[in-house]
Write a structure and sequence with these properties.
With 234 residues, the protein is of the alpha+beta class. The protein is built from eight helices and seven strands, in the order αααββααββαβαββα. It has helices at 16-25, 29-32, 34-39, 52-97, 101-115, 155-159, 170-177, 218-231, and strands at 41-42, 50-51, 120-126, 141-144, 164-167, 186-192, 199-205. The longest helix has 46 residues, at 52-97. The termini are far apart.
Length: 234
């Protein structure tokens, strides 16, 4: 009678867990059994079986493509940030060169229109309208008391401390854009001053997806700080 010991897998059923644990504990297994590596076949999307080596190469290629897409996205974001940084820098220079309130308002309006490509924008300041009657900025500039009932549609925003982005409400659209209200699809509201004490800047876009709640608001915060700082000089 033969006393040769039978392989362990002949007397005990091996589970996926056992196989995986063994391979993880012996990462050089396929180096020691290269012939086995080339002979193993695994399913493929095409329906045909491919070797384990081919499968590994396929996975590496997919990972490489994913990393390449992520790199392109990061580069795109970096370039967009560079463009925004340049625009904010230009706005800073324009505001520094403004010698009075009229010139400051004009610099903000120009930056919104040509620098930041806003389809519509409105600068709202809180105060006595009679004190700003000499400011000629057309529909871009509006002054009213903070407790004016016309500001009720903005009550939630005025209680906050950060910019709000998203779909524009009908009442807000009516107050800000009047005859052009139907053209505006999304809106960014930027507070000016701590707790929106000075007023706010409204930036409208015809693109309903241009401003949305999930977007980064860092550049809007910077713009708000710059404009608020310039306005407080006068």
């Amino acid at each position: 009678m033969s006393t040769q010991r039978k392989p362990e897998f002949a007397t005990a059923e091996l589970s996926d867990h056992h196989v995986r644990a063994y391979l993880e504990a012996n990462p050089d297994f396929f180096e020691r059994h290269s012939a086995l590596l080339s002979s193993l076949r695994v399913p493929h999307r095409s329906g045909e079986a491919i070797s384990l080596v081919e499968r590994q190469v396929s996975l590496l290629r997919q990972k490489e493509l994913k990393l390449e897409r992520q790199l392109k996205e990061l580069i795109s974001v970096a370039r967009a940030n560079d463009v925004l940084a340049a625009k904010i820098h230009e706005l800073s220079l324009q505001l520094l060169g403004a010698g009075n309130l009229d010139a400051t308002v004009a610099a903000v309006e120009k930056a919104m229109r040509s620098g930041f490509g806003a389809d519509q924008s409105i600068l709202v300041l809180f105060g006595d309208p009679a004190l700003f009657a000499d400011i000629d900025a057309g529909r871009f500039f509006r002054v009213l008391e903070r407790d004016d009932a016309a500001l009720n549609p903005f009550s939630t925003f005025l209680k906050g401390r950060s910019p709000r982005c998203g779909q524009v409400r009908d009442a807000q659209r009516e107050f800000l854009f009047h005859d052009d209200r139907d053209e505006i699809g999304s809106l960014a509201l930027v507070p000016l001053g701590k707790n929106t004490q000075i007023g706010f800047l409204a930036i409208g876009s015809v693109d309903a997806n241009r401003f949305h709640p999930g977007m980064s608001i860092d550049f809007l915060v910077r713009v708000g700080d710059l404009v608020a700082g310039a306005l407080t000089r006068f």
